[in-house]
Design a protein that fits this description.
This protein has about 280 residues and is of the alpha/beta class. The chain has helices at about 5-10, 35-45, 65-75, 90-95, 125-140, 180, 185-195, 215-220, 225-235, 275-280, and strands at about 15, 20, 25-30, 55, 80-85, 110, 120, 150-155, 175, 245-250. It has ten helices and ten strands.
Length: about 280
């Protein structure tokens, strides 16, 4: 998608008290429940002004159902869906590299240290494979410029997940949460989708995301292809040359094939993470 023409950028730019207002309205589309609802509400004119486009950051390791859902959703929207990518996260994990040329893709795997202690690895996958390609495309659409607040980014976070709200990391993008503005919960989004389009979007998170709930792991295990993928990657991350400790995909810190995948509630525990990754990587 080329940059917007300069005359159009000038026409859309206004100044209030010396501050440039947004030239672009972009919907961050993770293809999950909330962002799907947000996109379709915008398409129906229930939330406005109409976005210029939606943007989907593809890690290359999304569930097949996410790609299928996105293919179905795209023709339903009156604005284009731009797909961006910084590479294939799974391939980079297996090759022990990242997008910056480093020695490994930094996913927050669960660590068992040599002294028996526990830890969690650094989390750079969201920044490298989601945020960076989105920011790069926004800069391109702004003609290579980075005016303060030049892009208003719509993020699909609902009221019950308000703890996931985070400000933009760059000055030329300002985040907006339209579902929060309308006091909508995830359940409200699901009800809206049932009423208007009879659609149930899949979970939007990488196949091997370490923040999956037990229910999500059980669903992945029910798919032989996806589960074989998980087992292969989980075994591959165990011992990294020059890296202290062993890495595991699951917080139990044992091979995932050996994990008791009953829900946290079934075991009398609370959800440790609130599935935070889905809020960061796209909902």
């Amino acid at each position: 998608m080329p940059a917007l023409p300069r005359h159009l950028l000038r026409a859309r730019t206004t100044t209030l008290g010396g501050v440039v207002t947004a030239m672009l309205r972009v919907l961050s589309l993770g293809a999950g429940v909330q962002s799907t609802t947000l996109a379709l509400m915008a398409a129906a004119g229930e939330i406005g002004p109409m976005p210029d486009f939606a943007i989907f950051a593809d890690t290359g390791w999304e569930p097949r159902a996410v790609y299928d859902h996105l293919d179905r959703l795209e023709p339903m929207l009156p604005f284009p869906v731009v797909r961006v990518s910084a590479g294939d996260l799974r391939a980079d994990i297996m090759a022990k590299r990242n997008t910056t040329g480093g020695r490994l893709a930094a996913v927050p795997w669960f660590l068992r240290m040599p002294d028996g202690g526990d830890g969690i690895g650094r989390r750079q996958c969201t920044a490298e494979y989601k945020l960076a390609p989105i920011q790069r495309r926004v800069r391109q659409l702004l003609g290579g410029k980075t005016p303060k607040g030049g892009c208003e980014m719509w993020v699909g976070i609902s009221r019950d997940e308000a703890h996931r709200m985070k400000p933009s990391r760059v000055g030329y993008i300002s985040n907006r949460w339209p579902l929060i503005e309308r006091d909508m919960t995830r359940a409200d989004c699901q009800a809206w989708l049932r009423r208007h389009v009879d659609m149930e979007p899949p979970k939007s998170a990488c196949v091997g995301c370490p923040y999956h709930s037990a229910a999500r792991w059980r669903a992945i295990r029910a798919d032989p292809v996806a589960w074989a993928d998980v087992l292969e990657v989980d075994a591959a991350i165990r011992n990294q040359p020059g890296f202290r400790g062993q890495q595991f995909m699951h917080p139990a810190r044992v091979p995932i094939a050996e994990v008791d995948l009953r829900s946290w509630a079934d075991r009398g525990q609370g959800d440790l993470f609130g599935e935070e990754c889905e809020g960061m990587c796209g909902t």
